[in-house]
């Protein structure tokens, strides 16, 4: 059990750390980052290598080539610091429609996604979204949130231990854990998804992909999803599907000038499955 002076020093040290760990997203939102880009990039590389070693990679090279064509067009529109990453793309022979991008520029997609993303523009919507997570440093933010949550729960446990029985402390920790999960971690995840949606849609327009395809992609994804057992919206880490589609559809006309400028400048991706 921590003494009050020790607890106070610990809290002061934590506050000092937090003050030095503030960053800003491309949209101007303040975020907390307790891990460096270098650390996250190494985590991403390690995870990607493990996936390639343990999961079923596609034996059809054209699948990865197709995805890489889309990724290359999107990456060319990123700020220079993100273009410099060693971007790598791998298709996995998995039927669940999904894709991901890890810190360090590692992109993967399941071949089942290609049944849902019917055109290169729709695939660009998915992969632009995933690249958005990388540019917004969402993975680092999530890791930092989890680290901070654990520190906060430890402090609460230390304080509660001075005033309650062990059973009461257990109940308090269970309540705080649930509160942290529902009240902090999951809502941030929904915010991350929304940020990645809009960033990815803007990125695809600048690369010469039709931004209207983003809404259609999620219509396709929604239609392909098995809705039985879907968690309530409050506990979901993803935005409400209908709201997501409406937001992307509403945002597309604003991006039309960027798309038309890109096409006029010769940015006409020709990626084929």
SSE inventory with pairings:
Layout: H1 4-19, E1 22-24, E2 30-32, H2 37-54, H3 61-75, H4 80-83, E3 88-92, E4 99-102, E5 106-110, H5 120-135, H6 138-160, H7 166-206, H8 213-224, H9 241-264
Parallel strand pairs: 3-5
Antiparallel strand pairs: 1-2, 4-5
Helix pairs in contact: 3-5, 5-7, 5-8, 6-7, 7-9, 8-9
Organism: Pseudomarimonas arenosa
GO molecular function: metal ion binding; metalloendopeptidase activity
Keywords: Hydrolase, Metal-binding, Metalloprotease, Protease, Signal, Zinc
Strand line-up across the major sheet: 3-5-4
Rg, nearest Å: 21 Å
Estimate nothing, just give the exact number of structural domains.
Answer: 1
Number of strands: 5
**Number of helical segments with 4 or more residues:** 9
Family: Belongs to the peptidase M48 family.
Cofactor: Zn(2+)
Keywords: Hydrolase, Metal-binding, Metalloprotease, Protease, Signal, Zinc
Pfam families: Peptidase_M48 (PF01435)
Describe this protein's structure.
Residues 252-273 are annotated as: Disordered. It comes from Pseudomarimonas arenosa. Its cofactor is Zn(2+). With 273 residues, the chain is mostly helical. It has one domain (35-264). 62% of the residues lie in helices and 7% in strands. It contains nine helices and five strands. The protein has helices at 4-19, 37-54, 61-75, 80-83, 120-135, 138-160, 166-206, 213-224, 241-264; strands at 22-24, 30-32, 88-92, 99-102, 106-110. The strands form two sheets. The protein has a three-stranded mixed sheet with strand order 3-5-4. A two-stranded antiparallel sheet has the order 1-2. Helix 5 (120-135) crosses helix 7 (166-206), helix 5 packs across helix 8 and helix 7 (166-206) runs parallel beside helix 9 (241-264). It is globular, with a radius of gyration of 21 Å. It starts with a helix and ends in a 9-residue tail after the last helix. The model is unreliable at 10-17 (pLDDT under 50).
